[in-house]
Specification:
elongated, alpha+beta, Nuclear Transport Factor 2, Chain: A, 3 domains, Cytochrome Bc1 Complex, Chain D, domain 2, four-stranded antiparallel sheet, 404 residues, 11 helices
Length: 404
Amino acid sequence: MGYIVGFFRVLKDVFLFILGLMFLALFFFRVVEWGLEYKVVQPKVDKMAYEITSFAEANEVVFTDDLLSDFVQSWKKSGWIKDNEEINIRYVQFGNDKRFRVNVTLIADYWDHSVRPTGSSEMNGINWGEPPRETVRGEFPPFEDDKEDKKQVAEQKTETEEENQENANVLAEDEKTTQIEKISHDSITAFISHYVSAGISAIDQNDFSLVQDLLDPTGKAYKESKNYIKHMNEKGIQQELLDMNVTKIVPYNSDGFKVFTTEEYRVIDSNETIKIKRYQSEYHLVLMNDGKLALRELIETNLLSSAEVDRAIYNNHDGNTDFYDMEEETVHADPAYIYEQACASCHGGGFEGGVGPELYSVGYRMDINEIKYIIMYGQGSMPPMLDEREAEAMAAYLVGLQQE
């Protein structure tokens, strides 16, 4: 009997010893867990929350599941986050509110579930970008129970939105095409005439608003016109439109027209030098959403001729006399100047040729009338360049090169 009692006493002592060891082990692991939470896990979640908050405030972006996933993948790739550390991140920003909240939770799994330190951090910030129309709940990882449902709903929504947008674009394009087809050449001519006249008034009065409503705000001509008006006023240059003709109108870029013009101006510079200048210009007009025409771009403009006018004749000008009806020695177009401005880019500054053929020996290949005809009416890719009188002067100039 005594042996039995002794056995149970030893068994009790062993049991208490083992129980004490287990208690010490649990205490030890708990102390280790507390230490890891304080030294490792909590600093990580604080840093993650801070990085996401700072990124949102600095870059003015609203987070989605994909953005949060990118953050986590970059942390894991750098080795900062281990494979045995589970992360949950939630970004919440309510609709039409710039304020947002970031919550980060990390659960580490060490020594086969023996130690599971946990850390959590929450930060608030202000996203200075446009607030979302609907509440955003970006999360990594998304809730597993509705992840697939969300994906299917998002895919269906995207497909529907794309289909609706495509249909809307087709309808808008068809409607605009119909409107463009209804615009007459007379309306286009009237618009371009109004634009050129308004541009002259804007320069004279240094007032961009006089021409602003005739320009496409998204086009190149908008900024160029504003800068040109400023430049002309700084230089003290005045212009007067003497004549303008629309020579051709063609459809362009499915949203408007390309308009070709010849324009003649009387130009007075700051030294009171008076010149008559003729230009050939190419404009891009578009139909705006409100159904009105607007200038999008001055595609190209070429100086065809520039002739100086005697000041005394200008002062006695009665307003009815055409300057080109005056004596030839008073107003003339210099062929060498015209060649430099309108021809050299294709035929070379020394007549050596380039895109177009060389012209130094053109007098040996053609007579003066043949040269004049090509200058007036064009040939191949060369467009019509000059009027009859200027073409005749240019032809004589080119023929005369062989005599130099």
